[in-house]
Amino acid sequence: MSKSDPAAQTLPVYPAEEFRVTDGVAEGDAISFADELVMDDIYQLRKGAVRRPLTLAIDTDRAPFRVHERSEAGTPGNVVHLDSCVTLMASDSTTYEALILVEVDGTEAVETYLLPLARLAEAADYRLVGADRRTATTRFAEVACVSFARGTHIALASGRQVPIEDLAVGDRVLTRDDGAQEIRWIGQSTFRAVGDFAPVVIREGALFNSRDLVLSPDHRIFVYQRRDRIGAGRAEVLVKVRHLINGDTVYQKDGGFIDYFQLLFDDHQIIYAEGIAAETLLIDQRTRVALPDEVNDRLARHLPGHSDRQHLDYEVAETLLSTPDAVALLRRASSN
């Protein structure tokens, strides 16, 4: 991608009509804007409901999100608004969160989408117990912030391997592109490890890593292919770890809670975690919301070029990894 072509992020969404009220004031209606929702209505996800890939153009400024020209859902160029974060309660009292996105053509809303932040079961009852506009952008940003789990060993410029929770601002970390670079900010957050917040585990040795590596699902790892075994057309590739899940050497660990850490440098960097090259936090229109105000102010004053290096052209499409042996292919590609 060129700088005129913004980053694209694909969201697996349900069209609103797949999630309807089965009991309540708005019986028969699809999930909608926060202003039209009625608390305590009971919804169900239709049997056979299929998520559609909604690809958004993510600019580095604060312009609205727009449907990307490559998106399967929506109409390219239409604006997409993040309406609200809804809270749903299952029959066992477990709560789930989902985001409501609204696609607009001019001034007219043309489609509404549901983006669950945890897996919803088909034909199960979910009572609507909350709808909050204020937390929606924060939740959206938190999902996009690439994170390392507590206990992850990061390679310093000195060669020392230090658990991420022991790092401090100013520590010099070894980067692939720029040698030793100082950490500018460290973020920490704790989430229920469900859905889009459930970490992905790359087992020790799966990709020559020295220990299990635990990352957020959209975290991208860097692989140098000595032979292009996945058909990417280039040697250097970035791969989202969620696309490598095979249930064996790479799996998603659902349940409990997870402590996540984010590392910010002057530029988007590739660093070394448990021996695997992995990206650091990329600041863009979506992730900026998750940063404290003082960090955003400092970015504006001192790090104006942070988004210039985004490694966008390194990322591999999921279709190239949709084989059960994708991890083995990457392992072989990087070794011979």
What does this structure look like?
With 336 residues, this protein is mostly beta strands. Helices cover 9% and strands 38% of the residues. The protein contains 3 helices and 23 strands. It has helices at residues 136-144, 293-302, 326-335, and strands at 7-15, 19-23, 42-45, 52-58, 65-67, 79-90, 95-105, 108-116, 126-132, 148-149, 153-155, 161-163, 172-175, 179-182, 185-192, 200-202, 213-215, 220-224, 236-240, 250-252, 257-264, 270-273, 276-279. The strands form 6 sheets. Strands 1-4-5-6-7-8 form a 6-stranded antiparallel beta barrel. A 4-stranded antiparallel beta sheet has the order 19-18-23-22, covered by helices on one side. Strand 4 (52-58) and strand 5 (65-67) form a beta hairpin. The radius of gyration is 20 Å and the shape is globular. Mean pLDDT is 88; it is low at 1-6.
How would you describe this structure in keywords?
disordered N terminus; 336 residues; 38% strand; mainly beta; 3 helices
Give the helix level as a range of percent: under 10%
- The parts where pLDDT drops under 50 for at least 5 residues are 1-6
SS-based class: mainly beta
Work out the strand percent: 35-45%
Biggest sheet overview: 6 strands, antiparallel, barrel
Number of strands: 23
Shape: globular
Distance between the termini: 28 Å
Mean pLDDT, rounded to whole units?
Answer: 88
Order of helices and strands: EEEEEEEEEHEEEEEEEEEEEEEEHH
Task: Specify the number of helices.
Answer: 3
- Tell me the radius of gyration: 20 Å
Strands of the widest sheet, in order across it, are 1-4-5-6-7-8
